[in-house]
Amino acid sequence: MSEAAERDSRLRRPIPERWVQYYLGNPASLGWLLVVDGAAFLVGVSFYVHSDPSLADLSSLLYPLFGDSPTALALAALSVATLLPRLGERVTDAPSNRLLELLHTFAFVWLVKYGLWTGIALNLRPDLYVGFTPALLWEYWGILLTHLFFLLQAVLIPYYAKTSRSALLAALAALLLNDVFDYGFGLYPPLRYEAGPVLAAITVGLSFAVVAYAAWVFDRAERGNDVDRN
């Protein structure tokens, strides 16, 4: 392998494979990851239950579009749960099919997008968020830290998952639909300020960027002897 190829491989897979194998192939650590995802999901749902607008103001069919971070966590938990039947085996040899490609791709792009979006949204108005009062220790620093873990979990997914062109296009369409819901109808995640065109434009840009990133970082699924490009 050339030096350039090795550098590209390290960028796409920054965590040593043996660490990924230990944490995702070990029953105890994988179980704890699912527990943490579940607990964080419930915390996120609680936030949207008590926000204004809240889940009570919407049809249950719209919950996944409104609760962006809980949706990311639910997808992440489902993604890693697909490894449960293969505990003790190499996670990099996990099987792939069209449904799994969709699930893993959606989990990855939602985690990356809303891990980044949260940090950007809070820091667009640092005067409202940055501080060290008891409330801001959670509402700024705590939220930033928890969403950093979105990015860390997302990095693990391409080790055991593959994507396809159709999965990437579906993910982009779903993210853009979510953006229309958030900013076309004013149902973006509750903030201490009104989201204007700058945040809306950043959000749409993130949708394209994270799908492009997924296209680069994931291996493509194979169909027969050929790599799927459909």
How would you describe this structure to a colleague?
This protein has 230 residues and is mainly alpha-helical. The protein has one domain. It is built from ten helices and four strands; from the N terminus they run ααααααααβααβββ. The strands form two sheets. Strands 1-2 form a two-stranded parallel ribbon. Strands 3-4 form a two-stranded antiparallel sheet. A hairpin with a 2-residue loop joins strand 3 (222-223) and strand 4 (226-227). Helix 6 packs antiparallel against helix 8 (134-160). The longest helix has 27 residues, at 98-124. It is globular, with a radius of gyration of 18 Å. The two termini are 28 Å apart. The mean pLDDT is 91. Keywords: Membrane, Transmembrane, Transmembrane helix. InterPro entries: DUF1405. The chain crosses the membrane at residues 21-49, 69-87, 99-120, 140-160, 167-186, 198-218.
* Main structural class: mainly alpha
The H-and-E topology, N to C, reads as: HHHHHHHHEHHEEE
> What is the rounded Rg?
18 Å
Instruction: State the share of residues found in helices, binned by percent.
Output: 55-70%
**Unreliable runs:** none
Strand arrangement across the biggest beta sheet:
1-2
Question: Main sheet?
Answer: 2 strands, parallel
Spatial shape = globular
Q: List how many beta strands DSSP finds.
A: 4
Beta-strand content estimate: under 5%
The helix count comes to 10
Average pLDDT, to the nearest integer? 91
Count of discrete structural domains: 1
Amino- and carboxy-terminal Cα gap:
28 Å
Pfam family, one: DUF1405
Transmembrane segments: 21-49, 69-87, 99-120, 140-160, 167-186, 198-218
Keywords: Membrane, Transmembrane, Transmembrane helix
InterPro entries: DUF1405
